């Protein structure tokens, strides 16, 4: 189901590119990234995401050595936390699956050469489902008003990365990011701070033109 939804969303994005080409800059980035989170402070656990993104270059940096890109990415992911003390559930092992939408920008120190370092920033929103294990504290009573298992989050983060550009303008992306996310379970909020390690494949494109 999730894979089918991502394929349909990807097809819609391609059609949008064809119909809105006049809005794009003279250079564009299209990428697929895999992100691994080895740490989810303050919880003990890990997670991962797959993101599909499209960024366009600002016309204000057409003639500068540095290049500024902005765009959007969409994907999905999940995490696993050990003995997480989330609202309503008490201390339990918790896992999740979610979809995430992210607005982002990247500032490249140079748009030329085989090695192109950048700094980035993003804001994101995600929604998904929780799966909880048995209660670790048997004295905690079940709450009749506990949520059904859904949750959402919003947040943002900063990223440091580098692209290694090869033939035909394909590039390997390596990056590290720090996010701050506010996870809402029912009416309660919990802050989490994942560290994200990224590896991906990017295509540097020229101007996008309608057929």
Mind explaining what this structure looks like?
With 211 residues, this protein is mostly beta strands. It has a single domain (31-205), classed as Beta Barrel (Porin), CATH 2.40.160.20. Helices cover 9% and strands 64% of the residues. A hairpin with a 6-residue loop joins strand 4 and strand 5 (115-132). The longest helix has 18 residues, at 2-19.
Which properties best describe this structure?
mainly beta; Porin
Largest sheet: 8 strands, antiparallel, barrel
Low-confidence regions: 16-22
How many beta-strand runs?
8
Tally the helices. 1
Which bin fits the share of residues in helices?
under 10%
The structural domain count equals 1
Shape: elongated
List the helices and strands and how they pair.
Elements (H helix, E strand, L loop, with lengths): L1 H18 L8 E14 L2 E14 L9 E20 L3 E19 L6 E18 L17 E16 L4 E16 L2 E18 L6
Antiparallel strand pairs: 1-2, 1-8, 2-3, 3-4, 4-5, 5-6, 6-7, 7-8
Quick summary:
The chain is 9% helix and 64% strand.
